[in-house]
């Protein structure tokens, strides 16, 4: 058997069921891997060594007693540090919350614990999940597991690196514009953003509430299926959640009857590297060989999604982050009178990228610009949604690369925010339209992973998983 | 649409963000680049198009009920206060003589 920390969730779960390993051994293997590797990678902000071992032992006792809860019982999982774990620090990658202790569990944390998962610790992220490289963390960057001179992607870069470097079996991330899928693509793992409304965000530190969604980051598609099903469901604490049809995938190697659309405009995107285009094109050929029907489609307004995103998101950011004013929590820098205390506390606690987005949102919401920017963006959002509705009458899924390039060098884009924003071109459409989307590894270019990105209609995660798994099985 | 230094300062005031002159100069340049990009939306005809409300089906609003929390949650909430007096949050005075 391979080293325990390198097992997939499915493999680990079945080894636990068969009595070949214990959760304590599995958890210890992950903790050892963290100790050995994370000094260099910096994927974790906090590791709960003692609690994790205790949870693992409790799981082993349950198993001995025949009271095992399910697939996740005894499985070591990492959480992005914008997801609350009661009694533990929740920094969101910000200096503002350096000493902030979560008062309660996030709904997803609660669900994982109830299903017996072992929470290993918290992973690094761009401050308040704003960024595509994890360089914008107040606690220092996470490095790419395969190349320490490169970024792991972001904002869930810590979770992506932790899974890719086998420091955990699986992880949760959050995705507002691509923050699960792009780092998954950069690190060569699977990342799934569920449909908006599938997963409760109660206990997720909010970035842009109409776009945020929590999802799994895993070693395989089957692992993603297990983990996403563990966290979905209506929650009275998040009014956007719905009781939707359950995710019921049936794995198949036969994609006959599946229609996959390649949006013409997206595939012509300037800035897409030829090597990435070629790799993803190869994956398309594989899907075709499995019986899928491939067709080019028009997706009008889809390339406006990025502009819509970079208006709607900062507007919501400026509103959501107004709470960090130094009064009830976070950094307070007393500088009387009151106005100066607010301004000084926020300047002290919030980093450059966060402040940039707050200013942008404040601008787009301010008198005289609201109609031209925010309202116009919300109208174009309607047009984009309609375009997807129309497209999904003809195809079952839409395929592009996840990102136009592979992982870039540290510092390469830090002085050019617009260049970093343009990296989100293929992922933001899912958030702007609330659609489910997945990134699946489809090979390497010069030793760096490339991701294939699939979008499906609302609440059809099962279809995404089935197509992805059929592809993944051919790669093994 | 181009931002002036004064615009940036005003925005920083509205957002309650202290900005140094150097930061304001940088923000001016960076925001201009992003606004230059998003400006493409103004050219899209949207007459008669409703603005998007919710990205997916949502099921109404959460009622704003007060609920009891256990002692641990209660204590953790209070422990995050930047300044605490017993179970009370201590805040700076609202009315003070202005500095400038």
Number of strands of chain B: 2
Tell me how many strands of chain A there are.
11
- Based on CA inertia axes, which overall geometry of chain B fits? flat
* Overall helicity of chain A: 40-55%
Backbone CA Rg of chain A: 21 Å
Number of helices of chain A: 16
Would you kindly provide a brief summary of this structure?
The complex is a heterodimer of chains A (476) and B (100). Chain A is of the alpha/beta class and 476 residues long.
Structure explained in plain terms:
The complex is a heterodimer of chains A (476) and B (100). Chain A has 476 residues and is α/β, with parallel strands linked by helices. Chain A is built from 16 helices and eleven strands. The longest helix of chain A is centred in the last third of the chain and has 24 residues, at 371-394. Chain B has helices at residues 5-14, 21-38, 71-79, and strands spanning 84-85, 88-89. Chain B starts with a helix and ends in an 11-residue tail after the last strand. A two-stranded antiparallel ribbon of chain B has the order 1-2. With 100 residues, chain B is mainly α. The radius of gyration of chain B is 22 Å and the shape is flat. The chains are: A alpha/beta (476), B mainly alpha (100). Chains A and B meet through helix 10, helix 11, helix 12, helix 13 and helix 14 of A and helix 1, helix 2 and helix 3 of B.
Describe the secondary-structure layout.
The complex is a heterodimer of chains A (476) and B (100).
Chain A lengths: L8 H9 L5 H19 L2 E4 L1 H16 L11 E5 L26 H8 L3 E6 L33 H8 L5 E6 L5 H7 L2 E4 L19 E6 L2 H11 L27 E5 H4 L6 H16 L3 E5 L7 H16 L17 H12 L2 H14 L5 H24 L2 E5 L15 H6 L5 H6 L3 E9 L2 E8 L5 H15 L1
Parallel strand pairs in A: 2-3, 2-4, 7-8, 7-9
Antiparallel strand pairs in A: 1-3, 4-6, 5-6, 5-10, 9-11, 10-11
Helix pairs in contact in A: 2-3, 5-6, 7-16, 10-12, 10-13
Chain B lengths: L4 H10 L6 H18 L32 H9 L4 E2 L2 E2 L11
Antiparallel strand pairs in B: 1-2
């Amino acid at each position: 058997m391979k080293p325990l920390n390198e097992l997939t969730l499915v493999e680990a779960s079945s080894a636990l069921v068969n009595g070949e390993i214990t959760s304590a051994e599995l958890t210890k293997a992950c903790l050892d891997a963290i100790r050995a590797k994370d000094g260099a990678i910096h994927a974790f902000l906090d590791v709960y060594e003692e609690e994790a071992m205790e949870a693992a032992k409790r799981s082993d006792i349950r198993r001995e007693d025949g009271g095992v809860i399910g697939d996740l019982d005894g499985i070591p999982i990492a959480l992005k540090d914008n997801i609350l774990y009661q009694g533990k620090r929740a920094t969101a990658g910000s200096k503002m919350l350096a000493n902030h202790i979560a008062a309660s569990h996030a709904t997803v944390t609660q669900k994982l614990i109830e299903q017996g998962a072992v929470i290993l610790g918290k992973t690094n992220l761009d401050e308040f999940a704003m960024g595509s490289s994890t360089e914008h963390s107040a606690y220092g960057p996470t490095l790419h597991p395969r190349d320490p001179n490169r970024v792991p992607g972001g904002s869930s870069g810590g979770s992506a690196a932790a899974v890719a470097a086998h420091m955990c079996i699986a992880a949760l991330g959050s995705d507002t514009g691509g923050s699960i899928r792009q780092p998954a693509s950069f690190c060569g793992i699977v990342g799934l953003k569920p449909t908006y409304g599938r997963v409760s965000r109660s206990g997720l530190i909010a970035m842009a509430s109409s776009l945020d969604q929590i999802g799994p980051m895993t070693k395989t598609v089957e692992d993603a299926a297990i983990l996403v099903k563990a966290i979905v469901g209506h929650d009275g604490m998040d009014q956007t959640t719905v009781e939707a049809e359950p995710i019921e995938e049936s794995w198949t190697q036969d994609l006959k009857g599946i229609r996959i659309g390649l949006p013409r405009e997206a595939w012509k995107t300037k800035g897409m590297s030829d090597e990435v285009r070629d790799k993803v094109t190869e994956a398309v050929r594989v899907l075709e060989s499995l019986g899928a029907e491939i067709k080019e489609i028009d997706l009008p307004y889809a390339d406006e999604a990025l502009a819509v995103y970079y208006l709607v998101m900062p507007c919501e950011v400026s509103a959501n982050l107004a709470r960090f004013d130094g009064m009830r929590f976070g950094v307070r820098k007393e500088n009387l009178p009151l106005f100066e205390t607010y301004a000084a506390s926020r300047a002290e606690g919030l980093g450059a990228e966060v402040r940039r987005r707050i200013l942008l949102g404040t601008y787009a919401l301010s008198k005289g610009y609201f109609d031209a920017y925010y309202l116009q963006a919300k109208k174009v959002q309607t047009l984009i949604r309609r375009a997807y509705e129309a497209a999904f009458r003809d195809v079952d899924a839409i395929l592009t690369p996840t990102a136009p390039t592979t992982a870039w060098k540290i510092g390469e884009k830090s002085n050019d925010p617009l260049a970093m924003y343009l990296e989100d071109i293929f992922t933001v459409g899912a958030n702007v339209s609330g659609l489910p989307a997945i990134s699946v590894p489809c090979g390497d270019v010069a030793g760096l992973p490339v991701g294939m990105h699939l979008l499906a209609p609302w609440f059809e995660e099962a279809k995404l998983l089935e197509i992805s798994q059929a592809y993944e099985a051919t790669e093994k | 649409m181009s931002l002036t230094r004064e615009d940036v300062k005003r925005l920083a005031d509205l957002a309650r963000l202290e900005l140094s002159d150097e930061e304001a100069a940088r923000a001016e340049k960076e925001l201009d680049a992003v606004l230059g990009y998003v400006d493409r939306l103004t050219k899209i005809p949207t007459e008669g198009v409703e603005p998007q409300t919710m990205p997916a089906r949502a099921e109404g609003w959460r009622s704003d009920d007060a609920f009891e929390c256990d002692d641990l949650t209660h204590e953790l909430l209070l422990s995050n206060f930047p300044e605490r007096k017993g179970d009370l949050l201590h805040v700076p005075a609202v009315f003070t003589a202005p500095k400038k």
